[in-house]
Amino acid sequence: MTETREEAAPVAPDIPTGRSRRVRGRPLLYTSYAQDMALLDTPAKRLWTLLLVALAFGLSVLLQDRSLEVLAGAYVLAIGAIGLNIVTGYAGQVSLGHAFFVAIGAYTAAALSGPVDGENIGFGIAEVWLWLPAAGLVAAAAGVLVAPLAGRLRGLYLAVVTLGLVFLGEHVFKEWKELTGGPGVGREAAVPELFGVRLDQDGPFGTKEQVLYTLMLALLIVFAVAARNLARSRVGRAFAAIRDRDIAAAVIGVPLTRYKVLAFGISSFYAGCAGGLLYTISGYVEPGSFNLLLSVQFIAMVLIGGVATVSGAIAGALFISLLQPVTRSLPALVPFISGDTTQTPNVFQVETVLYGLLIVLFLIFEPRGLFGLWIRVRNYWKSWPFSY
Q: What's the per-residue H, E or C state across 303-332?
């Protein structure tokens, strides 16, 4: 008599089809490309981002007007730093001419919003939603014109070419007095007006500083999200391939010229928008402001904050912007440092030396910048009390 036995059927693994789900307690386990490419891929990131944004908006009623003015300028500089990070950090194209594109955006916005019958060129278009994209597009057009020349170069040669744009633009803007007002004179910056309401004046929504702070923060969020989406798109992956090895990128079918031109155009658009917004806070723009020091400041923001990271560019801009009030107070603390530019050493020379020193220190000890420091702290607490 043959004895039969019923064998248990093997249990099929729970493999999701179509729709994917996150395994509870394992936030970094991805079961689909959509999860891996998400803008905020973990619940902790979504929570902390929401809290930081809420805190940033809440500062408009907690801080004094002077502090809000400094932070508003930092947010605008962060927009420009994100733009430089796109072409230098993501696409790997070294650019030292960022101040040139910032100047184009600043004067385009000032000319569009300036009075028609004023001393300088003006068209009387004061609406922010009109002159802001126009400032970015004109700067982007300049970047696209420069990109084919720069696309044939790389490394130190590309840096020298873009550096020449700063000196060329500084000379043109100083001589074009109908547009800029001339050196030492300047002209009024773009007028921030939205649907007939002046944003640079105290009104029903709060003081001038509170309104401009909220506007700059909202625009920073828009530009940052757009840059983050760009980085995780097909274009962003092409930028990364060119940055890592352009010859290999060309072999696998990435058109180098097209994406280099696109990188310069997008970066210049960000710079133009930042230039149009930056001087609305002070209400005055002067051609001597767009010099090599401004380009060095943007380079410092990217390298100190973290290359090829949007959050790093924002952190670097905040770091540099909050460092300036400290350095400007040095003449009162250190007697031999003067606040007059005609004397040596002065506070502006100290700032330049400090930027260079910070760049060297971060490149040697923490190449990933402030973003890298945050990663180290986060990994330490995730693995605590173990050291591995």
A: HHHCCCCHHHHHHHHHHHHHHHHHHHCHHH
In this structure, is the dihedral angle defined by the CA atoms of residues 357, 360, 364 and 366, taken in order, positive or negative? positive
Question: For position 11, what pLDDT does the model report?
Answer: 41
Least Cα distance to 123 among 133, 131, 134, 115 occurs for: 115
**Tokens found for residue 255:** 């058109």
Question: Which letter, b or e, does each residue of 237-268 get, where b requires 16 or more Cβ atoms within 10 Å of its Cβ?
Answer: ebbbbbbeebeebeeeebebeebbbbbbbbbb
Task: State residue 10's pLDDT score.
Answer: 44
φ and ψ at 290, to 5 degrees? -95, 70
Integer Cα distance of 128 and 276 in angstroms:
10
Terminal CA-CA length for the chain:
61
pLDDT score at 184: 85
CB 275 within 8 A of CB 139: yes
pLDDT at 328: 84
Show the low-confidence residues of the chain (pLDDT under 50): 1-20
Number of Cβ within 10 Å of residue 129's Cβ equals: 10
Tell me how far CA of residue 70 lies from CA of 76, 212, 216, 225, 247, in angstroms.
10, 11, 11, 23, 43
Whether the pTM exceeds 0.85: the reply is: yes
Of 35, 263, 320, 241, the residue nearest 146 (C-alpha) = 263
pLDDT of residue 18: 45
Burial class (CB in 10 A: 0-12, 13-18, 19+), 156: exposed
Q: pLDDT digit string (tens) for 341-367?
A: 778 888 888 888 898 899 999 999 999
Q: Choose among 300, 292, 307: nearest CA to 356.
A: 300
> How many angstroms separate the Cα of 35 from the Cα of each of 23, 25, 27, 243, 287?
12, 15, 10, 25, 47
Angle at 241 between CA 237 and CA 242, to 5 degrees: 120
